[in-house]
Every structure is written in structure tokens, then in C-alpha cells.
Amino acid sequence: MEVPYTVKPRPDTGLYNAKIGVWLFLASEVMLFGALFSSYILLRMGASSWYVGSEALNVPIGTFNTMVLIVSSVTVVMAWASLRMDDLKKYKMYMGITILLGLVFLVVKILFEYLPKIDHGHVPSEHNFYAIYFVLTGLHALHVIGGLVLNAYLWGPGTKMWETEPEQFTNRIEIAGLYWHFVDIVWIFLFPTIYLL
Amino acid sequence: MDSTPGIKKEINLYLKVFGALAGLTVLTVAVAYLDVGIGLAVIIAMILATTKGSLVASFFMHLAHEKKLIYLMLVITLVSLLALFFITFGTIGDQVGVEIVPEGVSSGVH
Prior knowledge:
The complex is a heterodimer.
Chain A: H1 17-46, H2 53-56, H3 59-84, H4 88-119, H5 128-155, H6 161-164, H7 166-196
Chain B: H1 4-32, H2 38-60, H3 68-94
């Protein structure tokens, strides 16, 4: 059975199906992170004492990782633009850089944030601040890992589709990019909320 | 495939958006170290984060030129999110004026 509207837009919506699918998925993700953000605010307002993020966490590392994700958002959109210009080589380069930046984000997070915190006994059971820090950043990191798996597939074996269905492949990169940008937006809100306030 | 000059214009725009995002990130960190009190700090941080998020959504996610159905889905999402926040924060209102009694101390209420 052939899946309809993978390339051509549906006449009634003006969109190809995967785009509606990914936006619906992102809507559910907004609610997931929204629930956790509201929990954070609730816990903080109800606490008799709370850590100041900029004193308890490593702001330069957090700032560095923010820039890493922003640059990776640029490179993933450049990968999509390269395909629209029929340039597979540049697509490979930009998508490769996106994957590398995602890996840098995770390595920095684990080696320079999680492990030192755990070494110093700053674990979720110590205080609600660390509980919400590990849950929110950990869930975000899981999303980064999911994006990395998807991007790595589209950079490697998934590229075969370019030879037979170039437009559908270009749409796939747009969809993967939308997800990756969402992960970036979550971090854009998470960084000041947890690290700076 | 799309026209190359049109895409090159888009790429220039992406680079400008990147410059704005980098500048706003530096500003976000700088403002956090100003002694303005937690209330104002939260407001400034959220304004800057919303501006950055809007730039990513509008240009990198192409929401500036998207179809009506996507906008409709986003409006429904936003309303649902606000309802979630409203319900959650309602519990704070419930506790206003309620005496918090430490464990092991009798409140005198039976």
C-alpha cells in the first residue's frame, strides 16, 4: 500500500502528511515539558529554601551548551537548504556537523555537569532543586539522543532515498529539522530557568 | 528543487537570526548577574527566552510562512498549556493562609 501525500500537499490542508504528524507530536511535547516546568515553579514557590541556579550550577558550561545547540539549529536548517539546492555533498557536511554538535552537547553535559555533581553528592534526593534539575535536563538529553539517532540514520543509510525519491527525502530532513529546533527551543527556556534564576 | 537565488536569500536570513540568537544568549547571561531582584529577573529572562524561541520558531521552523492548520494546532496547544499552568498554580492559591505545621507538632486541630 502506498502512503499518500508524502511529497505533494493534501488539497484540503495544503500540507504533506508528515508535517502535520510532526507538529502534532511537538504539540504533545509542549504539554510534557509544560507539565514539568509548572511542577518546577510549584515546587520552587512552595519551598522554604531554594538554590540560586547561577551559584549551584556551572553557568559557563550551560552557556557553551546553549551556543552549541543554537549553532546545530543553524546547521540542520542549512542541511535542508542544501538539499533544496540539489547539493547532497553539502547536506552531508551540514548534517554531519549537526550530529557532532549534538554529541558535544551530551559529552559536555555528562562529563562536566552530571558526573561532578554526582561526585559531590548533589543527587536528586539531596534537594528538590537537584531533582528538578536532573529530571528536566535528563529528559531534554534523552530528546537530544533521540534526535541524534534520527539524524545519524538520515546522514548514513537513510540517504539512499535521495537517489530514488529526492523530494520525499528533502521533506524528511525538514521534519527531522523541526524536531531538532524544538529540542533547541526547550533548552532556550530551560537554561535561564534552571541555570540563571 | 527550489530556485537557488531564493534559497541563498533564506540562508542569509538564517545567519542573521543566528547572530541575533548569539547576542541574546550573551544578554541573557549578563542580565542574570544584575542585582534586580528575583521578580524582575524572572520577567527579563522569560522575555529574552520568548524572543529567542520565537526567532527559532519563526525562521528556522518556518512558522512565519506556515499554513493555517499549523497555526490552529499551535493555538490549541497554547490554550491547553495555559490551562495546565492555571490548574497547577490554582493549588498555590488553595494554600494561601493555610498554616504549615512542622512534623511532630500538634496543630491543635482534630
